[in-house]
C-alpha cells in the first residue's frame, strides 16, 4: 500500500516537472528581452530531462519485461488518440519554425548560448539548438529503450551504440571541430544520406579550409560511401548503419520506440515505399553526377541547372521529408517514415542487403502460433508473420535489423543471422499435421 502511494507521489512529481518545464520553455520562447532567457531556458531543459527520466523509470523499471507493451492500443498517446495528434502537431510546428521561421526561436537560441560557447566557441544558432534537443531526446529516450529491453543483450548493446554515435559523433565532435577552427563535419553521416558531402562545392571547401584534416574528411566520406558500406553490409546487413550508427535511426529506435506499432503494414504502403525511395536515390546520384560534370566543365554545360537540382533536393527531401514528415509525424505514422519512404542511404543499403549480404532473419516456422506480435512491432511495416508461417527466411531490402520482431516473439521463432550466402533464401521444412503421430 505504502509502495503504491509512493509510486503515485513520484508519478505526480514527474508530471509536475514536465508541466513546469513546458511553462519555462514557453516563457523562454515568448518572453520579452527583459527576462533572463538563459535561466528560464536552461531550467526548462533541465526540468524536462528530470521529469522525463523520472516518468520513464517509473513506467518501465516497474513493469515486467514481458508486459512492456501492455495497453499500447488502449492508450491514446500510442494509438493515434487526441494526445498523439497534439504531440504530432507540436513537433511538426517546431520543424516549420526551425526551417522557415528561425527568428521565432530566438528566445530558445539565446538560452543555449553558453552551451554553444562552451562546446563550439561560437554563437548559438537554430541548428545548435536542434542538435541539442535531438541529442537530449536520444539520451533520455535511450534510457527508456534500455529499461524496456533490459533482458535482451542485442537491444542493450544496440541502444548504447546509437547513443554513443549521436552524442559523440553527431553532437560533440562536430562542435569541437568548430571550436578548433576546423570545418564542421559529421563522421557518422555519408553520401547519399549526407548528399552534399560528395558534391564538388563541399569537397573543394574541405580541401581548401581543412588542410590535412579536410583531406582526411573527403577521404573518409568517399571510403565510407563506396567501400566500407558495401563491405559492412555484406557481412552484417543494413543494420550496422540503420540500427547502430545513423542519427535518424537512433532517434527512431529511442524517441520513436513508443510508436513503432503504427507503421503501415499494407501492400499499398510497400508499393509506395518502392515507388518513392528508389527514385530519390536515383535523383541524388544524378544530381551528384551533374554537379561534377558541371564543375569539370567550368559550368559551361548545365549552368545553374545542377545547382537548382541540389537546392530542390535540399528543400523537399532534406527539410520537408526528413524533418517535418519524418519526425513530426512519429505519433501518427510510426517512427520510420523517413527511413522507409525517403532515405537514399536506406535505399542504397537495401539493395546491397537484398542481393549481396550474409544477413537474414531465419524463421522456425513450425513453432509459429500466428500471434502477429512480430508484424505489429515491425517499424518498417514488414509482415513478418507471413514469412514465419511459411518458414521462409526474411530477406527484405527495408529490414533495418532492429531485432524487435525476434524480441517480442513469444515462441523464439525468429533469429537474426549472418551466414553463408548460398541457399540464403531456403526456408525451414515445416512439419505437417499428418506427419506427427501423437499416440
Ligand atoms: S523485420 Fe524485424 S528486424 Fe527487420 S525491421 Fe522489422 S522488426 Fe526490425
Ligand atoms: S511473433 Fe512469433 S509466434 Fe507470433 S506470429 Fe510472429 S513468428 Fe509467429
UniProtKB/TrEMBL annotation:
Organism superkingdom: Bacteria
Cited Pfam families: Fer4, Fer4_5
PROSITE patterns reported for this sequence: 4FE4S_FER_1, 4FE4S_FER_2
Keywords of the record: 4Fe-4S, Electron transport, Iron, Iron-sulfur, Membrane, Metal-binding, Transmembrane, Transmembrane helix, Transport
Entry GO CC: plasma membrane
Gene Ontology molecular function terms on file: 4 iron, 4 sulfur cluster binding; metal ion binding
Residue span(s) of domain 4Fe-4S ferredoxin-type: 359-387, 391-419
Transmembrane segments: 12-32, 38-61, 82-101, 127-147, 159-180, 212-235, 275-293, 313-332
Record-given protein name: 4Fe-4S binding protein
Origin species: Pontibacter fetidus
Amino acid at each position: 500500500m505504502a509502495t503504491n502511494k509512493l509510486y503515485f507521489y513520484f508519478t505526480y512529481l514527474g508530471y509536475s516537472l514536465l508541466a513546469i518545464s513546458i511553462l519555462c520553455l514557453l516563457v523562454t520562447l515568448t518572453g520579452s528581452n527583459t527576462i533572463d532567457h538563459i535561466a528560464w531556458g536552461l531550467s526548462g531543459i533541465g526540468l524536462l530531462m528530470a521529469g522525463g527520466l523520472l516518468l520513464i523509470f517509473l513506467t518501465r523499471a516497474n513493469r515486467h519485461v514481458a508486459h512492456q507493451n501492455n495497453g499500447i492500443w488502449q492508450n491514446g498517446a500510442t494509438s493515434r488518440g487526441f494526445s498523439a495528434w497534439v504531440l504530432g502537431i507540436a513537433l511538426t510546428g517546431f520543424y516549420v519554425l526551425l526551417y522557415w521561421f528561425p527568428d521565432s526561436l530566438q528566445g530558445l537560441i539565446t538560452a543555449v548560448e553558453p552551451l554553444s560557447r562552451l562546446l563550439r566557441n561560437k554563437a548559438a544558432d537554430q541548428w545548435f539548438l536542434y542538435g541539442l534537443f535531438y541529442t537530449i531526446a536520444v539520451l533520455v529516450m535511450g534510457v527508456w529503450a534500455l529499461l524496456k529491453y533490459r533482458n535482451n543483450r542485442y537491444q542493450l548493446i544496440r541502444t548504447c551504440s546509437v547513443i554513443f554515435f549521436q552524442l559523440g559523433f553527431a553532437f560533440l565532435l562536430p562542435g569541437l571541430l568548430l571550436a578548433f577552427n576546423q570545418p564542421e563535419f559529421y563522421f557518422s553521416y555519408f553520401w547519399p544520406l549526407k548528399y552534399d558531402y560528395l558534391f564538388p562545392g563541399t569537397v573543394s571547401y574541405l580541401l581548401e579550409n581543412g588542410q590535412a584534416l579536410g583531406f582526411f574528411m573527403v577521404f573518409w566520406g568517399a571510403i565510407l560511401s563506396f567501400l566500407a558500406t558495401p563491405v559492412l553490409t555484406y557481412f552484417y546487413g543494413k543494420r550496422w548503419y540503420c540500427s547502430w550508427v545513423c542519427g535518424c535511426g537512433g532517434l527512431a529506435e529511442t524517441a520513436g520506440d513508443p510508436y513503432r506499432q503504427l507503421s503501415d503494414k499494407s501492400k499499398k504502403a510497400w508499393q509506395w515505399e518502392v515507388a518513392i525511395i528508389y527514385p530519390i536515390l536515383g535523383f541524388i546520384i544524378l544530381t551528384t553526377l551533374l554537379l561534377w560534370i558541371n564543375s569539370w566543365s567550368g559550368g559551361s554545360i548545365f549552368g545553374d541547372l545542377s545547382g537548382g537540382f541540389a537546392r530542390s533536393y535540399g528543400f523537399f527531401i532534406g527539410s520537408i521529408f526528413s524533418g517535418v514528415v519524418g519526425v513530426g509525424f512519429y505519433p501518427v505514422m510510426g517512427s520510420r517514415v523517413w527511413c522507409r519512404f525517403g532515405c537514399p542511404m536506406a535505399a542504397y543499403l537495401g539493395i546491397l542487403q537484398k542481393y549481396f549480404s550474409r544477413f537474414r532473419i531465419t524463421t522456425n516456422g513450425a513453432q509459429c502460433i500466428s500471434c502477429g506480435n512480430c508484424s505489429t512491432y515491425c517499424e518498417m511495416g514488414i509482415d513478418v508473420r507471413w514469412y514465419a508461417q511459411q518458414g521462409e527466411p526474411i530477406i527484405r531490402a527495408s529490414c533495418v535489423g532492429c531485432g524487435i520482431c525476434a524480441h517480442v516473439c513469444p515462441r523464439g521463432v525468429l533469429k537474426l543471422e549472418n551466414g553463408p550466402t548460398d541457399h540464403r533464401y531456403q526456408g525451414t521444412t515445416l512439419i505437417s499435421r499428418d506427419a506427427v503421430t501423437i499416440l
